[in-house]
Amino acid sequence: MSLVAIVGRPNVGKSTLFNRILGQRKALVEDFPGVTRDRHYADVTRYDKPFTLIDTGGFEPVSEDRLLVQMREQSQLAVEEADIILFVMDGREGLTPADHEVCGMLRRVEKPVLYVVNKVDSDKLEDLAGEFYALGVGELHTISAEHGRGVPDLVDALLDHLPAAPSDAEAEREIRLAVIGRPNVGKSSMVNRLLGYERVVANPQAGTTRDSVDTPFTYNRQRYVLIDTAGIRRKGKVSQKLEKFSVIQALKSMERAHVVLMVIDAVEGVTEQDLTVAGYAYEKGRGIILVVNKWDAVAKDQSTMKRYQEELERTFKFLSFAPVIFVSALTGQRVAKIMSEVEKVAAEFDRRIPTAMLNKVLAEAERSHQPPVFHGKRLKFFYMTQVETRPPTFVVFVNKAEGVHFSYQRYLANQLREAFGFSGVPIRIHYRDRERDRKD
């Protein structure tokens, strides 16, 4: 799909326009500059020509503030990637020297640019918007992204520049990979290292990434989408509305992902927040890889890694199936191993086991360890079948499902893992009464 980038100075309403075109509230919107710091991608499929829309941090050409400089760099990258550009200006504030400078830069990119004057929500402001013709551009699109005024005409003009979607093109099968963890554990640096360039803002200030940021890429001929999420904090620590929305975005990113990289700070060690974040991923049934970052900063001897891994196994008891990789996003140490592990976990996430093989394991498990007694009668298991993948989900038919004790459920899950592996993948086993199933 074509890439459409929304660019402009901070706080001119780019994210509001992004949400308006997308048709849902996906980007962060707050009434102060600098809220949107990274490029933010979303596929827009509600029109006859689908496209990918990119929201960006604002240009601030004269600023030397490090964060604003990084935001400018991100916007410039978006312009380089985009096929069409929406340059948004503030109709209430009027034409500024920064608008002139950005406009001059856009003239040099040799791509279609639609010049948009936002916050024009009255006829009076419509008249005042004429000053923007001083930029020497052809057509101006005056809109109010907040109220929707003029946006349909802008979208029509945008669609005129887009190529028709191929009628016989099939969407390529993709694997979605989310990078999760507490704030400031190095998630954005990890994304940049994996991709080989500075895709997202990496800044020592905790909480720099507020939106979930999607980046498509290909590895070993397989299409992936890498999702860099805002750092999740415990509910009691999330005070501002902005931070609360970031948590929602991160959780939604897990819902969209197939595999998650759970990033842990090797220097700080495992914290209660790490357990909370990992618990979210486990509850959502995602493939999980534990990535211990900043390993270069840990004082080590010959057994340090072994001791650390044993500590992880004790702490993350519910993630005993998850592989562990010790890396340094700063130096690149072992980062190359991550994608090969992702391939394995993604394959397990999609794995389907024939019913005959499952029932062979079930019968052997019963012989090795008899089912429990319930109300004076021993439970009888009839058969097992797999009903879903992503994650692998099984149903076991039994004479009294309520009598299957938790310890025996765990035993059967372990038998499945011993027989079939499922490395990095949670498995779900549901128990149903055979008689009730027949009635249904």
Automatic annotation (TrEMBL):
Gene Ontology biological process terms from the UniProt entry: ribosome biogenesis
Asked if Protein transport is a keyword of the record, the answer is: no
What does the record give under GO molecular function?
GTP binding; ribosome binding
Name the positions where GTP 2 binds: 181-188, 228-232, 293-296
Keyword line? GTP-binding, Nucleotide-binding, Repeat, Ribosome biogenesis
What is known about its subunit structure? Answer: Associates with the 50S ribosomal subunit.
Q: What is the role of the protein in this entry?
A: GTPase that plays an essential role in the late steps of ribosome biogenesis.
The UniProt entry's sequence similarity note says: Belongs to the TRAFAC class TrmE-Era-EngA-EngB-Septin-like GTPase superfamily. EngA (Der) GTPase family.
Name of the protein described by the UniProt record = GTPase Der
- Species assigned in the record: Trichloromonas acetexigens
